[in-house]
Fold this protein.
Amino acid sequence: MANLETGTGASRVMFLNSADATQNLSANYLTTDYIFIPDESIVVPPHHTILMSLHHTQIPFSFYNFQTGRNTTLNYGTSATGVVSGADTGTIEIPEGNYNAQTLLNKIMELLNAETNVGTLTIRFNRDTLKYEWNWVGLAGHERLTLRIATGTNKDVNFRDEIGFNANKFYQGSDVFNVYFDNNGAGRLECGYATDAVATPYFILPSGADTAYWTGEGNQGGITANIFSVVDMNSSIRSLYLRTNLTQHSVLDSAVGGGFSSILARVPIEVDSGGIITVSPSDGSIHKLILKVREITFIQIRLTDQKNRLLDLNGLDWDISVQFDFIETPDLRIPKDKRLQIQERLYKDFKDAQTKTEKSVKKK
């Protein structure tokens, strides 16, 4: 009996394990980018098309929300009151791992306060507003602390979104800004231009508003600010994306301007760290992609985050199975009765034109 959805008698399912494939990078420990070459190619019969879907997958949740080279580095600068911090003074690197809002701010405070001339930075997480609240007490000659979150040396690998400095909350959604605390008695939080060399900031949060949530217990006399963006602990990795070399003409992606991408499926993360991320056949087979290839000689698999960056499973292998359904390519021939109607209309148009021409000739 034929499959009711595809009109075919059976499906082909290919089971793949990253341990059986060839890693596509020089780093063999990175099992999330590999090529598998089957002993027998999958050939598409004439007048047929393949519908491809994700059948099943099991991925060990061994990667980190905070991963080196992705979102663990932060440049900072210190300077005197009112003096622009135009260069990086130092850098902190939080260890890669899985943090919650409290353990992350504890680690940031530990590392920054251990730096020379930083002074005392105190951060608190407000569970009602889901924001970090900051209190800053500087040292003599180093009264301004600049968190160089978008224009520093490591602007692309810092954790600005996770701690609330989301570009969407700043002027015109710009991502070229730094955030600095200036202990000059004005008690303000300012967000400067890309080079911090322009006097007019993108945004100024007056002290009368920013001290409403926390008076800075233990740090009286410092500057307290409630950052006006919600903390997003999972900013770096919200979902996993399975990508293949076969799905180049089936999926549209806003990340590439709405053009076609290599995404096969989006895999939501619904387990805790240390668990197994699973997609069952009922989940994966809902979305079927039409393939234009006539023969499959190899298949490349990539496991990435939403920004198409490879994940590191810390050497662990993972499983995936893809399903191929063969459907008969529809014949788009015009029905017989429709052809007759078209022929009759064309003949009538021809005769009308011929008659019109003959009348024109006789009149002359």
